[in-house]
Write a structure and sequence with these properties.
Elements lengths: L4 E6 L4 E8 L3 E9 L1 H5 L6 H23 L8 E7 L3 H17 L4 E5 H7 L18 E6 L4 E8 L2 E7 L5 H11 L6 H10 L22 H17 L11 H29 L4 E5 L6 H14 L3 E2 L3 H4 L4 H12 L21
Parallel strand pairs: 1-4, 4-5, 6-9, 9-10
Antiparallel strand pairs: 1-2, 2-3, 6-7, 7-8
Helix pairs in contact: 2-3, 4-11, 5-6, 5-7, 5-8, 6-8, 7-8, 8-9
The chain binds 5'-O-[(R)-(carboxyoxy)(hydroxy)phosphoryl]adenosine (KG4) and zinc ion.
């Protein structure tokens, strides 16, 4: 494959990811060091701990990616790095490594928006994957992660029109909080998905926040409702000691009811947006897109309206360097170059409301 070969660095949250990406699509190397086990102990991410872990892992991850890719510095056309949104201390680790490498090896530096990375994961091809056509525009994408939940339309590369977003919690954040409530640990998303699969009773309906005709989302009401249903279930089970856990079967029912509500709203709005905007492709991205129930539900809807769906494999939905290389290549080809003043932008927006 032709096109620029980029070294790409992601460190915005709790994953240290470094990749080598050719032509904005082909993965030559993609190494991710996850801090999930580290943050499981505290039940969530502690920013200072995350930043220190990035410092600890960034060079070993770089070494491994470099060895996997089998490239030389002369082959590298540029260095792409996430500069926001995310945790300032974490972002700075990636940015400073990228700047140092760009300075030492005299390579152009490209700043990438983390959210645009999640969108561009749809372009990626694994090392041995057969080439497939690029996603066709206009496309409608749902990005659902621990920090963000939004629907966006892309009419061309790097051209985003925000259709709607969460007015309170991100979907992943709601999964994580409810996971903690149900005693399922951190991160809650995968744990809730596993627990929900075992639910025998599936008739407890949790509320859905439809937010009228808009493409906005809200999950804080559902979180409160889940807490109430949880407390009622504890009472019904005669549990008074807070240390006494709910039976697994009840946890499974609650996990199922909560997950069903979140996914019903996410999938329904995504399909409606794709229909309304005349989308030629639907894309899912972000950590919550690793959820197989969401993937299946959107696939069913996409099939019904006859629009191709692209969902990266789960490892490319959660944070990684490859997606930053895919988005970075588009910025590189558009002639964008970052200066030495490239800085962490914790609240960098993808697109402003139209
Ligand atoms: O994109 P990501 O790796 O990091 C952010 O940019 O936030 O997303 C992490 C989020 C977490 O909230 C996690 O609970 C959620 O993605 N997640 C899932 C699943 N796997 C990860 N949520 C639901 N189902 C899953 N299978
Ligand atoms: Zn992310």
């Amino acid at each position: 494959m032709s096109g620029p070969l980029l070294l790409a660095i992601e460190s915005s949250c709790d994953e240290t990811g470094i990749a080598l990406i050719e032509g904005g699509r082909r993965i030559r190397a993609n190494v991710v060091a996850s801090q999930v086990a580290l943050h499981a102990a505290s039940g969530g991410i502690v920013p200072e701990v995350a930043a220190r872990a990035h410092l600890r892992w960034v060079l070993p991850v770089l070494d491994e990616a470099w060895n996997d890719g089998g490239v030389e510095w002369a082959d590298i056309d540029g260095i792409a790095v996430t500069h926001g949104p995310g945790l300032a201390g974490s972002l700075l680790v990636g940015i400073n490594v990228a700047k140092t490498l760009a300075w030492v090896h005299d390579k152009p530096l490209i700043g990438v928006n983390h959210l645009e990375g999640h969108l561009y994961a749809a372009w990626l091809l694994d090392p041995d994957e057969d080439a497939r056509p690029e996603p066709a525009f206009p496309l409608v994408a749902l990005v659902v992660s621990g920090g963000h939940t939004f629907l966006v339309e892309m009419t061309d590369h790097l051209t985003y029109r925000l259709l709607g977003q969460t007015v309170d919690d991100a979907a992943g954040e709601a999964f994580d909080k409810v996971g903690r409530l149900l005693g399922l640990g951190y991160p809650g998303g995968p744990a809730i998905m596993r627990a929900a699969a075992d639910a025998l009773r599936r008739d407890v309906t949790f509320p859905r926040a439809w937010m009228g005709e808009s493409y906005d989302f809200s999950f804080s009401g559902l979180k409160t409702a889940t807490r109430r249903i949880h407390d009622e279930a504890r009472l019904a089970a005669g549990l008074k000691d807070p240390a006494e856990p709910l039976p697994d079967a009840v946890v499974a029912e609650l996990a199922h009811g909560f997950q069903d509500s979140v996914i019903d709203v996410l999938a329904t709005k995504t399909i409606r947006a794709a229909e309304d905007r005349g989308a030629r492709t639907i894309v899912l991205g972000g950590g919550v897109a690793a959820n197989t129930v969401l993937r299946d539900r959107v696939a069913l809807g996409a099939d019904r309206i006859g629009v191709p769906l692209i969902v990266p494999r789960p490892g490319l939905c959660t944070d990684n360097g490859a997606m930053i290389g895919a988005a970075g290549a588009r910025r590189f080809l558009a002639g964008e170059r970052a200066g030495w003043d490239l800085d962490a932008r914790p609240t960098l927006p993808l697109a402003r409301p139209a």
